[in-house]
Amino acid sequence: MSIPQVTYFGVFTIIGLITMAGRLTDAVTDPWIATLSDKSRSRRGRQISLMGRSAAPFAILTVLVFRTPAQGVSAVNAVCLSAALLLFYFFMTMYVT
Known about the structure:
mainly alpha
């Protein structure tokens, strides 16, 4: 994946900021998804319904995290990685929690 290698404030990189945003999103969605799971009244079970709805998007996003839409170094790749990683963490939470 070709992401611009830029450093902000001498410490932060684009990859680091994307990863930080993903983990912060994960920290917010974990308790939210757990609450939804606990309130579920599905006849298949509380977790099975969330797992079923999240399996395909989770698998697709796992691949998209490693795919680049633009050749070479591009800001488009950074934006696409950000979106894919945020959604990846969301669907991972749905599947694992």
